[in-house]
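Tutorial, part two.
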Amino acid sequence: MPKKVTLQMIADAAGYSKYVVSKTLNNQTGVKESTRERILFVAKQLGYYKTSEYNAKTITSENENQGFVLVVMPNIRQQNVESFYWSSVFNGIVDYLEELEVSVIVISNHDNLVEQIKGDSLIGVVTVGFVSTQMLLQLSDYDVPLVMVDHEDPLVKADRIFMDNITGIQLMANHLMGLGHTRICFVGDIDFSPSFKDRWIGFRTALENNQLLVTKDSLFDFNYKEKISQQLTERVRRWQNNKNMPTALVCANDQIATTLIEVLSVHNISVPEDVSVTGFDNIKCKSNINPELTTIHVLKETIGRRAVSMLLWRIKNKQYPTEKIQMSCEVVIRSSVTSPSDGIQIKK
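Running the prediction step on this input gives:
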């Protein structure tokens, strides 16, 4: 049975507050015409309207006749550090579609709204980050082009776009080894996403190419969905107790890296004097982090725009095989790395 469409669902999908949606649906003044048209269009596509002379007249527009693109986000209501990354990708997608005057509806993969979407005017789908196989199969039933950003599924036929995670992390690891580091550890949940897995593969390959053994000490694999700080604290204490602290820690993303720097500071371990720390993504997830983080710069907005161009090309070229695109990235050197010291100097 279809899920009842609420004001909050329309607000999330349209990108406005519930207050603005309520004013629009009640035909109140104080809402820009362009905003009103977008909200009414989204409401209709979600099946909010029953029968009304006002509604039927108002929600018809040129954009509706052109069709719309459905964007599926990991969780558009979450306000956590991931939004620093995904919101930039999302902005790249939506801004480009708006430039092209193509309507957009945004849903979360937790809202179960796929069955509410009316597919008559749907021209394509872009998913951002992890989306469950079940939802991807539901989306495939619309029989329109599908582009996945930073995710892939063997059961779903779709074009995919990633950063070149393997090459990016190899560049970072090679830079650290060029500084003299040999006790290097990768920190991340390698089963969390294809990107994390690729970054581990790139790290491991870099070690092997430099004739360094890959051992159990080369990886700290933890559960990214659980409390990161607590897990990092436990590992840092173990390194201290066993006196086998790596001289460089290559983290799967900036959130892990900045959290790790804070944990190391609590344990009187200096970055980079005692341990060098690097991230991936180049996002400002914590404004007060010190030292500044060495990381891999990811063109987040460009990924979003590239996903749109990929979708539009696929709409006109459905007969060709699906593609996987990898976009290049670059190392950004800041003050969180240096040459290895002789040993950790614990501050008194």
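The first strand starts at residue 68 and ends at 73. In part three we will examine how such features are distributed along the chain.
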